[in-house]
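Replying to the earlier thread about multi-chain prediction with a worked example.

Input:
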Amino acid sequence: MIFSSFDFELVHENSSNKAVLLFHGMTGTPFEMKKYASFLFKNGFDVYCYCLPGHGNHPVSIYCVSWKDWIEFSKEKFSEHRSKYDYFFLGGLCLGAVISLNLCEIYNNISGIICLSTTLFLDGWTIPKYNFLMPIGLYTILRYYYTFPEREPFGIKNENYRRIIQKLTSKNNVALDHYPMNAIYELLRLSKYTRKYLDKITSPVLLIHSKHDDLTSIKSAELVFNRISSRKKKMVILKNSYHLIIHDNERENVFKESVEFLNNCIHKKVEALL
Amino acid sequence: MNTVLSGLALINLVLIVVFIIATNFINMQKQPKLMAWYSVLLAVLFLIYFTAILTAAAVALLKKEYIILSLVLFIAIPFIIGKYVSYEKLSFYSNLQLFALFLSLFLALFFINI
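Result:
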């Protein structure tokens, strides 16, 4: 069921037996996943993507949600679609990647997950120097007053794409142009909870992260890679992109790696069954 | 001791003024950048405020003026408020924080005079 105008469901007419449930990034909407989703769809996957609670409607609503709301919502969507497919994958960008990891800790019937620019820590190179004030900002009432404005390079190294995204976010049409501190607080709480149980993850995992991510350093992806118990795991490090890797210089590479990973998971499972 | 308490009272007063400006005269939705800068300023002032309280407490401990140690509670109050605050009750908790700041100012001035 579609609740927000940004939600989308790409479903093949002659039903596919494989699907991907995608989660967008913090302060974003499913709109940012559309191009990526379309590529997956063209390669035979049904794709679902919904607006997370607090996103996609009035800017104030993000102040009224917690990380538990995000997880409950994601669990609902997962349960809604899982049984329809033989192969069911999760994927996410930024906060979406953390949600995918969290679901993988809860459910053991996930065929694989794709983590794009996994954000467990906010330690990228555009994080302000006054970051040392973060504990006061996060744990006092200031959390509801401070917003971290989106600034150059807006997560995108390619200047042409950056101008397009900048125009879209400045109109608040498809994403907020700032990160409310409260949302950051909830992301960090979710991150702390997810990090505790990473060793429970046994599904195949693909991590794609930029070496020059402006919002979150590669430490997040490395931590996940080292802690999960998955036998099949792969980490791809990009060298010519920033945070929004599905919109940046190497997006074609991201798309191809994703489809290759998904198909490998299916073939390996089929081989195991034979 | 009076110098330290005077410094604390001064920073407390500045914190109250900036807090009132930020919470009553700036629209968070329409002026996010201005609010962001005021929030950073408030965070810096809170840091100085906590440092001033700890300094006063340290001097009070050396001078055995134990009643002044009660000011240390005011370091915990912003974080206790932070634990329970929600967007729906933001106005209430902002007033509560403001009340706590006025109370600590009153106490600092009281301790100067005794």
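The mean pLDDT of chain B is 90.

Feel free to reuse this layout for your own posts.
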